[in-house]
């Protein structure tokens, strides 16, 4: 089993993945080879992902995550500010370009999770709002 964090539409999930559909076998000479398994043999329960949303700081909160690696140049909003969809929350510099990080929907800023000058990676939490 391997564990991964996956972000889909701004929500982060922790998932465990088990490889199915391939098995290792040995022939009569002891040589190892891989053999495909008919996927119809795999039970429906095995195929279902065991995903659970990652916890957030506030109940019902939405997250704004970094779309790319870069450096936070400026922060335009602070906790308690009311934001409208499309408002600039902060500016992220990546590859010598300034990228505006926009509010994905209306809400109120709960937290700003970075400071100006911070280096961030893709998927890092930038802000939380509800």
Kindly describe this structure.
The chain is mainly beta and 130 residues long. The chain has one helix at 44-47; strands at residues 2-8, 11-17, 22-26, 32-36, 52-53, 62-65, 70-75, 82-83, 88-94, 97-102, 107-112, 119-120, 125-129. The chain folds into 2 domains: 2-53, no CATH class; 62-129, RNA polymerase II/Efflux pump adaptor protein, barrel-sandwich hybrid domain (OB fold (Dihydrolipoamide Acetyltransferase, E2P), Beta Barrel). Helix content is 3%, strand content 49%. A 4-stranded antiparallel β-sheet has the order 6-13-11-8, with no helix packed on it. β1 and β2 form a beta hairpin. The longest helix is centred in the middle third of the chain and has 4 residues, at 44-47. Residues 53-130 form the Lipoyl-binding domain.
Write the layout of secondary structure elements.
Layout: E1 2-8, E2 11-17, E3 22-26, E4 32-36, H1 44-47, E5 52-53, E6 62-65, E7 70-75, E8 82-83, E9 88-94, E10 97-102, E11 107-112, E12 119-120, E13 125-129
Antiparallel strand pairs: 1-2, 2-5, 3-4, 6-13, 7-9, 7-12, 8-11, 9-10, 11-13
Strands side by side in the biggest sheet: 6-13-11-8
Mean pLDDT comes to 79
Number of β-strand runs: 13
Poorly predicted runs are 42-47, 54-58
> What order do the helices and strands follow?
EEEEHEEEEEEEEE
Q: Which percent range fits the helix content? A: under 10%
Distance between the termini: 34 Å
């Amino acid at each position: 089993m391997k564990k991964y964090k996956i972000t889909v539409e701004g929500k982060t999930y922790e998932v465990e993945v088990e490889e199915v559909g391939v098995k290792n076998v040995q022939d009569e000479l002891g040589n190892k080879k891989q053999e495909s398994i008919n996927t119809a043999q795999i039970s429906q329960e095995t195929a279902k992902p065991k995903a659970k949303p990652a916890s957030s700081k506030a109940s019902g909160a939405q997250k704004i995550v970094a779309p790319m690696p870069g450096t936070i140049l400026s922060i335009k909003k602070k906790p308690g500010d009311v934001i409208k969809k499309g408002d600039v929350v902060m500016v992220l510099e990546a590859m010598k370009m300034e990228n505006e990080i926009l509010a994905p929907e209306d809400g109120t800023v709960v937290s700003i999770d970075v400071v100006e000058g911070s280096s961030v990676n893709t998927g890092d939490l930038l802000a939380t709002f509800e």
